[in-house]
Write a structure and sequence with these properties.
Largest sheet: 5 strands, antiparallel
Shape: globular
Structural class: alpha+beta
Radius of gyration: 21 Å
CATH topology of the largest domain: Pnp Oxidase, Chain A
Order of helices and strands: HEEEHEEEEEH
Distance between the termini: 75 Å
Strand order of the largest sheet: 3-2-1-4-5
CATH superfamily of the largest domain: Electron Transport, Fmn-binding Protein, Chain A
CATH architecture of the largest domain: Roll
Number of domains: 2
Helix content: 10-25%
Number of helices: 3
Strand content: 35-45%
Length: about 180
C-alpha cells in the first residue's frame, strides 16, 4: 500500500489515495457496499460543498456541479445544474452518468442510469388558492407553436403525498369545463 494511503478501517475498508486508480483486481477492495457509509460520504461531500464532475459521454462531456441534497431513504441525490445550458440538456438526455469528486483524501466515483430533473417549491396558482409542490420532470421536449414560436413542453409528476392538491386540480378542471 502506498505510504500516503490511510490504514485499513474496520470491515476491510480502505480509502484510495486521491486520484490514484486501483488495478482491476484491487478495485473491489475500495468498493463500499454499506448504505449507511455511502450516505455518510455523500453527506460529507454535500456539507463541505465539494465540486463534483458529472460525466455523461466521453471524457470531454462533463459539467461541474455540487450535491444539493442527499436522501438515502429515497435513494436519490439532488445536484445543481452546471453553468452550460447545452451541457445540461445533454446530461438530462444521457442514459448513463458518472460522478467523480474527492472526499477528503479519497477519490469518490459512482454511476447512475441517468438523471431526471426535479423542481422543488413550485408554486401553482389556481383562482381560489395557491399551492407549493415538488415536481419531477418525466419528459421534456421542444415544440413549435402555431405561431412558429419554439417552447419547451414538459410532463411532470407530483412528488410526495398530494391528496389536497389533486382535489384542488380536479375542482379547477370542473370550474374550467363549466365556464
Amino acid at each position: 500500500m502506498p505510504s500516503d494511503a490511510q490504514e485499513p478501517r474496520p470491515g476491510n475498508f480502505r480509502l484510495a489515495p486521491r486520484f490514484e486508480e486501483p488495478g482491476v483486481a484491487e478495485r473491489h477492495d475500495y468498493l463500499i457496499a454499506s448504505q449507511a457509509e455511502i450516505a455518510r460520504i455523500l453527506r460529507s461531500i454535500e456539507t463541505r460543498n465539494c465540486p463534483v464532475a458529472i460525466y455523461f459521454g466521453g471524457e470531454e462531456d462533463f459539467t461541474l456541479s455540487r450535491i444539493v441534497e442527499v436522501d438515502p431513504d429515497g435513494g436519490w441525490l439532488s445536484f445543481a445544474f452546471g453553468m452550460d445550458k447545452h451541457a445540461n440538456s445533454r446530461l438530462l438526455a444521457a442514459r448513463r452518468v458518472g460522478f467523480v469528486c474527492a472526499d477528503q483524501e479519497a477519490k469518490v466515483e459512482f454511476l447512475s442510469r441517468g438523471v431526471t430533473e426535479v423542481t422543488t417549491g413550485c408554486t401553482i396558482r389556481l383562482p381560489f388558492r395557491t399551492a407549493t409542490v415538488d415536481l419531477k420532470i418525466m419528459h421534456s421536449s421542444v415544440i413549435v407553436l402555431e405561431n412558429g414560436k419554439r417552447v419547451r413542453h414538459s410532463g411532470c409528476q407530483f412528488l410526495g403525498e398530494q391528496r389536497d392538491l389533486k382535489a384542488l386540480i380536479a375542482r379547477f378542471i370542473v370550474d374550467l369545463s363549466n365556464a
